[in-house]
Specification:
single chain; 654 residues; alpha/beta; 19-stranded mixed β-sheet; 5-stranded parallel β-sheet; globular
Length: 654
């Protein structure tokens, strides 16, 4: 669609002078929608210099102020809007009155630039694009949003506001997405993300509150806005190793892409050197549409989810059965009950080479869509560094527990300040378990880096103490229930400010990370959105991983998995999945797991290194040395090999 003729009304300057009086008090579903989707694309702003052009009352500056940017600058032509911003921001941002076509800032001054609903008020968008390119530093990104012109035209939407009972139209310059892209391409900026979201449940609530449900119903299913992420045309993303080979996946087409728990984009996902290079609709974007034939797959009818982060496991115990009888008061009682290394079944399982057991632990995670796991034991570089089946975190400090690790305070002090310190704590229901956090505090081993595993025994004082220092919890519900007959309630979980979910090992857990999610939803009643975050973005925050794990944003590691699209939100879909639903897992652009159907769909170059494993009768093609691993297992384990309680079988080639 070509750009429309200018829409008449009072000037934007006069309009926003008037609108400033009520701007922050009027519910606006367009802003709600934009905030939801733009948030899924934004990188961490820690240490970045951020400029918001057309910042208005400081909506985005206020959202970013708590995320440790190096600086925040807002520019707007309306002094009245900036007065509102100043009240809101309290000096956390520098605010400038200025023309966004002649921005009063130096060149190369910004790492990230936001242009929220600005373009429609700019007569010559090419001038704005040139200013943005001038200000943007190498490696930076621009985030540009605006009203979707095609939908606005179809339904007669007007740019304006109501005040004193009257509607006021503001003059604007509607443009198509194609014309917008051309303006930025002319300035040397290319799109790496293009989203065209339509209203969802959060916006429906805003419409209803404003008494405009009929407007919502009429436009349902139509894109209301568009969201662009732009980068300098000649720049390339950093590589994740040497993944851009003929065996790496280059692009996915036609899928639904889960950007967040409620935010889904339809379109394409492109990969370059192991990282996500483009997300969204690639129509009209010539550079992104020519994917290599051998590296492309159509996944219409599938939902792409970010690879899950398992915040707690002991990989070497994946082949073990559950041990113990339950009814314990603390984990020490359990450990004493099962610690008979010379007896069956511990004797036979320990005889399996440890490196093989670690591999089986990785496969157990892979089957459930996990692509990153925190292994609470020493990092085994010779196993994990080269070609392992999932990513295993390396950069963290740890101790086993207060009761079994007398030097936990020293281990905490030796942990680098930018890494988490992880420890089993309050794993029980007695006074001893409850008191452990205070011992940690007295030894100066409790701070914002501290991540406690379990936390079941904490009382309200203990939970408040952890929250006050900014510490985090990793929750393993089925392990808690098996050992102690209970786990944390929803109310108790709300008292922790940062929560991630872990599977623990099959020694005590029910199955895998997807089993934990279903248990937490169905039995404990945890909110679907909270659970989605606990294995994606919240888990990444807790474990301080910085390569985009848990997201599908541009620049993130290309770690994701595919399931059948059920037409529900990402969070709802995730809360009902089991391992059989996982049909494709990609890590760093390489296919690590494929169902039989995916194996048939994928080009042979992408599956040549996969081997076939049968799990409870279900075939999965896996990137692992299965012949060696299965030989190591059956040599020592009588009868059958079980992985997380599920029977596995490998058919040796004839």
């Amino acid at each position: 669609m070509s750009s429309s003729a200018p829409i008449r009304g009072i000037t934007p300057r006069e309009g926003y002078r008037l609108w400033s009086r009520v701007y922050d008090t009027q519910p606006n579903p367009l802003l709600t929608l934009e905030e939801r989707f733009l948030e899924t694309l934004l990188p961490s702003v820690t240490g970045l210099e951020v400029v918001d052009l057309g910042c208005g009352t400081g909506r985005w500056l206020a959202r970013l102020a708590s995320r440790n940017p190096k600086s925040l600058v807002g520019v707007d032509f309306s002094a009245e809007m900036l007065e509102q911003a100043e009240r809101k921001l309290g000096g956390t941002a520098k605010l400038l009155v200025g023309d966004c076509e002649k921005v009063p800032l130096s060149s190369a001054c910004a790492d990230l630039i936001v242009c929220s609903f600005l373009g429609s008020y700019i007569e010559n968008l090419a001038h704005l694009a040139e200013q943005v390119r001038r200000m943007l530093r190498p490696g930076g990104s621009v985030f540009f949003t605006d009203l979707h012109t095609a939908t606005a035209t179809k339904f007669g939407w007007r740019r304006g506001f109501s005040i004193d009972g009257e509607h006021v139209d503001i003059a604007s310059y509607p443009r198509s997405i194609e014309d917008t892209l051309l303006s930025f391409e002319g300035a040397g900026l290319r799109a790496v993300a293009l989203l065209e979201p339509h209203f969802g449940e959060p916006e429906f609530a805003v419409f209803e509150k404003a008494g405009k449900q009929s407007d919502c119903d009429a436009s349902s299913g139509h894109p209301a806005i568009f969201v662009l992420q732009l980068r300098p045309s000649m720049e390339k993303l950093p590589a994740d190793g040497e993944q851009d080979t003929e065996v790496a996946l280059k692009s996915i087409h036609g899928a639904c892409i889960a950007l967040g728990g409620e935010e889904i984009a339809s379109g394409d996902l492109h990969i370059h050197q192991g990282r996500i290079a483009f997300v969204g609709k690639a129509q009209g974007l010539s550079e992104q549409t020519q994917a290599a034939k051998d590296g492309s797959i159509d996944l219409g009818g599938f939902l792409i989810l970010p690879g899950l982060i398992n915040a707690h496991d002991h990989l070497e115990f994946a082949l073990f059965p559950r041990l113990g009888k339950g009814g314990y008061h603390n984990f020490v009682e359990w450990a004493q009950d099962i610690h008979y290394p010379g007896n069956s079944p511990v004797l036979e399982h320990r005889a399996v080479p440890k490196d093989s057991r670690l591999w089986w632990g990785g496969i157990r995670n892979l089957l459930s869509g996990v692509t990153t796991v925190c292994h609470h034991n020493p990092y085994v570089a010779e196993v994990f560094d080269e070609g392992f089946v999932v990513r295993v975190l390396r950069d963290f400090g740890w101790a086993h527990s207060v009761s079994m690790d007398g030097d936990f305070a020293r281990r905490n002090q030796e942990t680098p300040p930018d890494q988490p310190f992880i420890i089993h704590l309050a794993e029980g229901i007695d006074e001893q378990s409850s008191a452990e956090i205070f011992e940690l505090f007295q030894e100066h081993a409790l701070d914002d880096r501290t991540v406690i595993i379990h936390g079941l025994g904490l009382d309200e004082h203990g939970r408040n103490l952890l929250r006050s220092v900014g510490g985090a919890l990793v929750w393993c519900p089925t392990s808690n229930v098996f050992l102690f007959g209970r786990t944390l309630s929803c109310d108790a979980l709300q008292q922790f400010s940062r929560v991630a979910l872990g599977s623990d090992s099959p020694l005590t857990s029910e199955g895998d990370l997807l089993d934990e999610i279903r248990f937490a939803r169905e039995i404990v009643g945890v909110d679907e959105g909270q659970l989605f975050a606990s294995v994606t973005t919240s888990a990444a925050d807790v474990l301080r991983v910085r390569d985009g794990q848990g997201t599908l944003r541009v620049g993130a590691l290309a770690d994701f998995f595919a399931v059948r699209d059920r037409g529900v939100s990402s969070a709802k879909a995730l809360s009902t999945l089991c391992w059989r639903d996982v049909e494709l897992v990609v890590i760093g652009g390489l296919v690590h797991l494929a169902s039989s159907e995916m194996h048939r769909r994928l080009p042979e170059t992408l599956t040549a290194e996969l081997q076939l494993l049968e799990i409870d009768g279900e075939p999965r093609w896996i990137r692992a040395p299965l012949s060696r691993l299965y030989s190591d297992a059956i040599r020592h384990l009588p009868g059958e090999v079980k992985l997380g309680g599920r029977r596995v079988r490998y058919a040796f080639p004839a």
